[in-house]
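To: structure desk
From: M.T.
Subject: fold request, one chain
Message: Could you run this one when you get a chance? Sequence is below, nothing fancy, just the single chain.
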Amino acid sequence: FNRRKYPACLKKLDDLRVASGKSADRFAVYAFTALCHSRMGQYEEAIRVYSNALMIREHSTVSSNMGSCYLELGKMDEALECFKRAIRADASNPNPAQGTSLCQNN
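Reply: Done. Structure tokens follow.
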């Protein structure tokens, strides 16, 4: 991702969101939209969009990324819940375990 290109990327993703009929396509659009917001430091918006993706299906990386957004906002309890959710979705993903450790050390 290139920081200067995030706004253009968000516009294209919004066009895809409107056009996507399948929930698998919509899930991907939500996940990438949230990632763009997160990379731009728009953590509250990223959390909102990650939540939309997780309503479609559980996904370890999406839950872990959402936990990272909560960490950035200093919301340790919410972050910990996201990391636990991520571990339940895929225990082999190392990122949520690292996030859990960060929450417990703060």
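Reply (cont.): The mean pLDDT is 89. Let me know if you need anything else for the meeting.
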